[in-house]
Design brief:
This is ATP synthase protein 8. Belongs to the ATPase protein 8 family. Keywords: ATP synthesis, CF(0), Hydrogen ion transport, Ion transport, Membrane, Mitochondrion, Transmembrane, Transmembrane helix, Transport. It is a single-pass membrane protein. By secondary structure, this protein is mainly alpha-helical. Helix content is 36%, strand content 0%. The chain is built from 1 helix and no strands. The relative contact order is 0.06.
């Protein structure tokens, strides 16, 4: 059972972290969101009470 052998764990975790931080992260950071947030004022709608026909 190779998962019980803890010898390569540190190396695998370090290589995973380096791969993410040096290769994947710079490729993901330049993307801009499709719908950027805008400064909209919240609109309040007037609610009317429900009519209860059985009272």
């Amino acid at each position: 059972m190779p998962q019980l052998n803890p010898n390569p764990w540190l190396f695998i975790m370090l290589m995973s972290w380096l791969t993410f931080s040096l290769i994947i992260q710079p490729k993901l950071l330049p993307f801009t969101p499709i719908n950027p947030p805008s400064n909209k004022t919240p609109t309040t709608t007037k609610t009317s009470p429900w009519t209860w026909p059985w009272t």
